[in-house]
Inverse folding.
């Protein structure tokens, strides 16, 4: 069984600062993918970044980077230089044969 | 490329009524998913199709929910009869491959309110 834990229900961050969103996971699969999605108040689910379980380098996509620590089963998302448009719900997800989501973290960027 | 299309965008029904949602995945995507997202929670997988076959429906309340994917493309999700606790956003997603490194692409969802 897969389990994804996001312990931060909500976070505030100042514009232009970096923020780290925590995610830990548990799985018995050897091959799996870790994903982060953004869900603005409008409701759509936007794919941000992916990390494969066999990837040795941490994934980066623009201002998003994924801090992958396999031994600790952690896949934290770092958003650098926060913008007002980053205010949203962020979900960590893991995929073996199906994609399971954590409970999410609400990020509010302050001007 | 066109994204995942869902309709309707919003639906309000009374309990015990029936409702159906439609999804058209990204062209060429073999795998299709229906998720239920209750307000303030993460999405929960209801059913997963690979082409027109069901891969996983373990969390689908089969006494009231049904889904089909005819011809391996479009899909419909039906609730009959609806209960108050079915109020949620129903998200459809598709992925190119049935593999751990293939991201899911989501539609805008259908927001269902059961009164």
């Amino acid at each position: 069984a897969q389990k994804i834990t996001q312990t931060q229900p909500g976070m505030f961050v100042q514009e232009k600062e970096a923020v780290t969103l925590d995610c830990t996971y548990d799985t018995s699969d050897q091959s799996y993918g870790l994903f982060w999605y953004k869900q603005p108040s409008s409701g759509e689910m936007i794919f941000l970044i992916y990390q494969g379980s066999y990837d040795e380098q941490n994934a980066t996509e623009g201002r998003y980077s994924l801090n992958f620590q396999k031994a600790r089963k952690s896949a934290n998302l770092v958003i650098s230089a926060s913008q007002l448009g980053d205010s949203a719900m962020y979900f960590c997800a893991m995929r073996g044969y199906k994609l399971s989501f954590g409970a999410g973290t609400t990020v509010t960027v302050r001007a | 490329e066109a994204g995942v299309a869902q309709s309707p965008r919003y639906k309000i029904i009374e309990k015990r009524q029936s409702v159906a949602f439609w999804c058209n995945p990204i062209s060429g995507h073999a795998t299709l998913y229906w998720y239920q997202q209750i307000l303030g929670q993460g999405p929960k997988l209801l059913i997963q199709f690979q082409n027109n076959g069901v891969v996983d429906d373990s969390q689908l309340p089969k006494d009231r929910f049904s889904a089909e994917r005819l011809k391996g493309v479009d899909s419909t999700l039906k609730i009959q009869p609806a209960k108050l606790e079915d109020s949620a956003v129903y998200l459809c997603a598709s992925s190119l491959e049935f593999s751990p490194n293939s991201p899911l692409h989501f539609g805008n969802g259908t927001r269902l309110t059961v009164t």
